[in-house]
Amino acid sequence: MTATSADAAALADRAIYEVFIDAPIRIVWDTLVRTDEALPFFFGAVCDTADGLKPGKPMRMITPDRKFASVVGEVLEFSPPHRYAHTMKFTQFEDAPCTVIYELSETEGGTRFRLITENVPAGTKTEKSMVPGGKFITENLKALVETGKPKFSGRMVMMLGPVMALFTPAQCRLEHWPLVTPTLEMPAPEKETPHG
User: Fold this and answer.
1) pLDDT in tens, 157-173
2) What are residue 20's phi and psi, to 5 degrees?
3) What is the distance between the terminal CA atoms of the chain, rounded to a whole angstrom?
4) How far apart are CA 29 and CA 73, in angstroms?
């Protein structure tokens, strides 16, 4: 069962989404940090890196067709199989980046998984996306590891991904968010060119 300790007042400082997963810690970890396939618990995105998940290196979450980036950040910590942390910025919002931490610990019969968000800009679109996002990630990761498939919500995200891409803002195009040490700033608006 997922227990969420987040509330609107506390979200800006620190929110914790915690779940028990009935699987060994190594299996949970290996599922969490996959970089070679679309991950239903990350809304169907692929974790893209230039040289693996390493502290100080950029990472981004991209669509499987490599056209859009939804999230960009920098790896802050990567300590298998217990802790992974990175900065995070939604590419569609102008909000400042926050920090996301994944903590895993062995418990009797399984793994305790915690998703922690810190320094989420209060009152922003990022803040509004983080609460349902944290719940979605923990529940779908648990389902995927325990049963081999995500929850219905995760399956729907995977099915609707190509349709949702039609509504993705141009500022999220992958070429605006290269895999270099991120500046985490919005790309300059594209100039319209006259047709004719």
Assistant:
1) 888 877 777 788 999 99
2) -95, 130
3) 59
4) 19
Phi, then psi, of 172 in degrees rounded to 5: -90, 0
Query: Which residue matches tokens 């949702």?
Result: 164
pTM over 0.85: no
How many angstroms separate the CA atoms of 11 and 187, rounded? 27
Q: Are strands 110-118 and 98-107 parallel, antiparallel or unpaired?
A: antiparallel
Q: How many residues does the chain have?
A: 196
Q: State pLDDT tens for residues 3-45.
A: 444 444 445 678 999 999 999 999 999 999 999 899 999 999 9
**Average pLDDT for residues 99-119, to the nearest whole number?**
96
Q: Which amino acid, residue 166?
A: L
Segments in 33-150 forming alpha helices (H): 125-147
User: Residue 52 in 3-state DSSP?
Assistant: coil
**What amino acid is encoded at 183 in this protein?**
T
**Cβ atoms of 115 and 100 closer than 8 Å:** yes
Q: What is the dihedral of CA 148, 43, 89, 181, to 10 degrees?
A: 60
**Shortest CA distance to 133 belongs to which of 66, 71, 63, 67?**
71
pLDDT tens, position by position, 171-189: 999 999 998 754 556 666 6
